[in-house]
Amino acid sequence: MKIIFIGSGNLATNLAMAFKQLGHDILQVYSRTIESANALAIKLDTAATNDIKEIRNDADLYVFSVTDTALPTLIPQISQGKEDKVFIHTAGSMPLSVFKDQVQNYGVLYPMQTFSKTREVNFRTIPCFIEANNDKAQSVLFSLANELSDKVYLLTSDERKYLHLAAVFACNFANHCYALSADILNRHNIPFEVMLPLIDETALKVHALSPIEAQTGPAVRYDENVMQKHLDLLLENPLVKEIYERMSLDIHRMAQNQ
Amino acid sequence: MKIIFIGSGNLATNLAMAFKQLGHDILQVYSRTIESANALAIKLDTAATNDIKEIRNDADLYVFSVTDTALPTLIPQISQGKEDKVFIHTAGSMPLSVFKDQVQNYGVLYPMQTFSKTREVNFRTIPCFIEANNDKAQSVLFSLANELSDKVYLLTSDERKYLHLAAVFACNFANHCYALSADILNRHNIPFEVMLPLIDETALKVHALSPIEAQTGPAVRYDENVMQKHLDLLLENPLVKEIYERMSLDIHRMAQNQ
User: Strand B128-132 to strand B105-111: parallel, antiparallel, or no bridges (unpaired)?
Assistant: First the structure.
């Protein structure tokens, strides 16, 4: 398949590399700045542009992997003269309807994972959620997604917005808990490595137990003595103290509702 | 070694089983209620009691694995007539000095992991932090901890309290992020299993990148459009909304301080 990528961020980079490895032909990379378009185009051994007028018309598929707010302005500009092609975006939080009345065949491919440019991921195990406006787009998306991953699901825009919110908690906020942990250790000259077995077991545990069943620690017991001692250690950082208080309250709330 | 366990909770259960597997002789389990003492004693094929006066004097080591607040009252009651023995507790948040002036040889063995009674863990990979008041206690603790784990560290009470706080963030609070994620999915009939590859990669990623480098998602970009849409989905739960707001603010703060 001949594919053009609009965007060159973390997800665009990982997805374009994966499509190339599957034998697809990445014709071109567009990005707002030529530097970032080039950075990805070099990895793909393809052409780069930052000029919307230079985006070729002869691709089968246009993949928009850009900031959410850029989509509504980019779609009408880029789709001109390409009305018979398939257009998709990859944003968990944007509805399918962002393409409505702009193009004929469109869809969403949301690979639910945390992508960084420096870290290659294995798409086979990544759940991919797809949605399309017609059979043509859906058949393209199914075939592409199945080449990428063993876990392909049809999901509506409305369900996907909750899925994306749930992913922010399970990934970004869990990772921020690691960052806060690393910060505390760093201030006391304890290497973050000592925390990795605990982080790994915490993640592994929810494969076998529900997170509520898996919970341990002072908040689930509502051990006010321990919690107060912890809050005293956080006095210098009021925002982190507020996070500690609210997380503990909410852990307790959930344990009680069990 | 002849060992008596004071306490029968998650950590006591896992630690006592591990000591038994290493060939140590668990003489007795004490717990506040005979039911919970029995539950652990049966697993260990040993005796149970809920009567402090019945705790035997002929063990080499007394392991206190109880709620923090119970330690100061239990120690003087249980140590009577056992002054030449070694006493340890396993609490990350309690100082060594809780034993001071009560017994002669004492220490702390803090295995930093999340323990549940229904889930067996491999102690060999669990970092164990030890501290002792004299050579006798330290030598007992070193030898025991080295039998258990490949990762044994000496750590002071003051450092351990920060380590314990860091562990609450990396484990309990990260797990609560999973619980909040599971709750959102559950309300929308999406199985929690779809989140596991993302949870696993988020944990695995911080083996290679620092948590700050690993961070992705709307908060690190401070994408107010996405964040506002997420907050609108959380209106029915003000506490979770507050957690979302504060986590996002703090992710942004950390990304800016990079």
Answer: antiparallel
What is the three-class DSSP state of A132?
A: strand
How far off is chain B from A98, nearest CA to CA, in Å? 14
Closest by CA position to B56, among listed B103, B17, B15, B2: B2
CB contact under 8 A, B250 and A239: yes
Is the CB of residue A125 less than 8 Å away from at least one CB of chain B? Answer: yes
Least CB–CB distance from A163: residue in B164, B190, B229: B190
- Nearest-5° Cα angle at A109, A106 to A114: 150
ipTM for this prediction? 0.94
Distance from C-alpha of A171 to C-alpha of A166, rounded to nearest angstrom = 9
Of A170, A218, A247, the CB nearest to B243: A247
> Considering only residues 19 to 78 of chain A, which have any Cβ-Cβ distance to chain B shorter than 8 Å?
67-69
From first to last of the 258 residues of chain B, give the pLDDT tens digit.
999 999 999 999 999 999 999 999 999 999 999 999 999 999 999 999 999 999 999 999 999 999 888 999 999 999 999 989 999 999 999 999 999 999 999 999 999 999 988 888 899 999 999 999 999 999 999 999 999 999 999 999 999 999 999 999 999 999 999 999 999 999 999 999 999 999 999 999 999 999 999 999 999 989 999 999 999 999 999 999 999 999 999 999 999 987
Please provide the size of chain A in residues: 258
In the block, which residue shows the tokens 């567009």?
Answer: A30
Q: Are A15 and A117 in contact (CB under 8 A)?
A: no
Determine, for residues B113 and A201 on separate chains, whether the beta-carbon distance falls below 8 Å. Answer: yes
Is A173 at the interface with chain B, CB within 8 A? yes
